[in-house]
């Protein structure tokens, strides 16, 4: 669950599935929910069921329809029988809801809990503690609609901080930030990725293939960071028991741990 880029693909566009897998996205999310109109949902599910046995599902995630919708239970049953190992649950509102969904799935299937309502934010600690939940994701646009908030930037800082804190408290991977709706504004995307990373997020939802590469790059250590980590770890080996400085700054245990994470990044992601 250390993916950086999560690329959504409409579940009723099977001709795009293989193309999405070829984009370099760390994970491809086949979306049976918002991207598919009600009249097409049954056909989308059936088409996905036929396609899944033809590919390696390792990088695939299925976003099912929300609990309480007419399509939810059969979506979950399709995932259960498919061999897909990760499912995304929209409108994740309570720990009980997540536990009931998890009970219908093999124990090996992990759930990305998409937090996109006020109820989900209020229950976030309990949701993050459900054993089958592997990561939290922020459905920013839907959350703003539910909360009556206008704007996807500083208006959501409180929720982003809470999501990072609760993920860390539950021992989950760093959470996944919401989409950047502007498809032709890669500078805005780059700004959003940098901001999410500063807050402690580890990935981002993508709605177009052109967003994948900037997201992957933005959540990876820069060359300057890699060189800094190498200097810290080299100095650490020379001073195994005492305090020392690198680039004129004191290095202590948290700094050393950060350097180790940067040095291990390529190994972890691949």
UniProtKB/TrEMBL annotation:
InterPro entries: Aldolase/citrate-lyase_domain, Citrate_lyase_beta/mcl1/mcl2, Pyrv/PenolPyrv_kinase-like_dom, Pyrv_kinase-like_dom_sf
Limits of the HpcH/HpaI aldolase/citrate lyase domain: 4-209
Domain of life: Bacteria
Chain sites annotated for binding substrate: 63, 116
UniProt binding sites for Mg(2+): 116, 142
Co-factor(s): Mg(2+)
Molecular functions (GO terms): lyase activity; magnesium ion binding
Keywords: Lyase, Magnesium, Metal-binding
Pfam families associated with the record: HpcH_HpaI (PF03328)
GO BP annotation list: oxaloacetate metabolic process
Keyword Transmembrane among record annotations: no
Keyword Membrane among record annotations: no
SUPFAM superfamilies per the UniProt record, alphabetical: Phosphoenolpyruvate/pyruvate domain
The protein, known as: Citrate lyase
